[in-house]
Amino acid sequence: MANVSSSGDGTGAVFALIIAINDYIARDEYPPLRGAVKDAQEFERYLRDPRANKGLEVPGSNIMVLTNGTATRANIVSAIKSHFLENPNIPDHGETTMILFYAGHGNRITATDNIISTDGKVEAIAPVDERTIDAHGNYVYAIPDYVLGWLLREISEKKGPNMTLIFDSCFSGGINREVGMARSGHSVSCPVPLELDDYLWKGKNQTDTAMSYSMWSPSATSHVLLAACRQDETAYEFDYGNNLIHGRFTKELITWLRRVPLENTSYAELLNHLPVWPGQNPQCCGSKKDRLIFNRNYPRAGRQALALTPQTSDAEIPGSFRVDIGTVEGVVPGTEFAIHAGNNSFLCTLVADSVRIEHAILVTKNKQPVTIPEGSRAVVSDWKNNAMVLHVHLPPDFPYTSDLFRTTDITYLPKGHRYVQAQSLSTADILVRAEGREIVIERLTSTMIECQRETRFSLKGNTTHLPTVVDGIAHFNYFLERHSRSDLLEDVTLEMYRLVGMYPGRRPDLSTGNMIVNNKVLLTAQADAMYGFAIRNPSSVDLFPYLFFFDPDMYTIKCWYSPASVHDAAPLKGDGMVTIGMGSEPAFQFPETLPPGVSSSFAFLKLFVSTQPLDLGWIQQTTPFDPGFEGPGQLSGGPEVLTFEPTWRGLKVVLTLTV
């Protein structure tokens, strides 16, 4: 789903580091592979091939390759720094595409006592000299994901957040020769001493907010990871005949990279094209997985564009299509979607015929089959959901009434918007008034009255932007209040802790305990205070959790945690826990001071949990006060007739920050 429009042909300057290892020195622990180096050669060929041959046409000088004996631990870390972080040919804070490709063995290593891990393990890649003694007499360890993640974070901050990782390896620690060669070691690697790599982060900023250094983190902002399998699965290589041995993930990935239109295909959509094999589910991780492939932009069809998937010929309604948006997001039977081709031209309107928690089936209004080109996208054009309508009260002297409502009929719903004029102040959700050059939003719902009564912004002379602002407020309010009762999920809890320790070993301060009491948190502004979260699931059912941060000052919504992808196994296991912002993940910080004259500030945490994977990333929004804000989808009135399935729940927590 998209946030901004895109133009161009998909990629600009590209720099790539390719690492592949067939022959490890410790052959007893890492059996030889036959296809990793060939994978690297095939990927390099894809990078260098001209656009006419569906390649990226990357100059050879922009590509660095380490294979077999050159892919030592020291060389890999050094190459990541020299080819990306310290490369003078990559402009700082620019839009250069950076690609790190790895094919070889992976492993899971025991986490040291200071590292938070739900199962006591961290992922690692195996350099060619792992489990050997180097020239200085030192044991050579694997490269853990928190080391790679820290380097990626530094690259993102200096060069720009346009990094793609492609890993054809696995971390399960098992091996299976019945189907094909697995890319994992025979045994678990030794724990890596924290002091071995702490020169990378010692003395550097330890207080970054809402960014993950873990390579596998679903919320990582520094990179997108395309991985051959889940963390607990196995990546295989196969002999395709004529001595063509490849990792099956790499072979399929390159096939589809050459096939799909890069200028209008996101990472997540690319992953959906790849096969899913027994015991090997390819993964796409990172908060930017909805960006265009190798590009900083989003698909062209618009801010909340959705991939459109044709249903099979044996579908209940021939010629129907699926979109991965459902009841949680507010879709109801009758919700209308505008369909756009890859060049952004409008094709037709489809209507939601059936809606489930995680997807909707779309048909034409007369249910007749229609031909829609591959790569087309769906954008909500009319929600048809009365529950999403915001009721707005305006004082008689409000100078911009005609910008919001072009008629005096207060039952009129402005076309393409999601608000109506309240019949009285008592029935309103917000009051909008003018005070000098400022617009004042007074909140009238029970949640907001208890917290922060009003916020202000300036239109800066652009009164036509006011309807988009109110649409953004409607979107914010709807998802803040979104809830569903489920006895099955009722006991799931969100906990918040102040943290002690340093990266990568931050842990809860058990002396202060869980800070959330009765769904409320009271914080005192303090410099250097860092926080993390735990989601506990006492039920026997595995769940998918999603944590959002709602800022009522600016009406922004940010996702702080979601599963890696809709193909991922449920991360919140029955009778288990998920941690956020602890260990090798950056902790969360809140302002250490408040503006003069302000004694307190408020925000909200909203936790969604579901028994099925959901694609909720598009709920996020930037501030609607920004003139560049595009606004959520359109809406017109209509009853919300769907009875929700008891498979998800929303939990709201109020954060209060005082000086």
TrEMBL record:
GO terms for molecular function: cysteine-type endopeptidase activity. Residues 15-273 form the Peptidase C14 caspase domain. It comes from Mycena venus. One of its GO terms (biological process) is proteolysis. Transmembrane segments: none annotated. This is Protein TIC 214. InterPro entries: Metacaspase, Pept_C14_caspase. Pfam families: Peptidase_C14. It comes from the Eukaryota. Belongs to the peptidase C14B family. One of its GO terms (cellular component) is cytoplasm. PANTHER family: METACASPASE-1 (PTHR48104:SF30), METACASPASE-4 (PTHR48104).
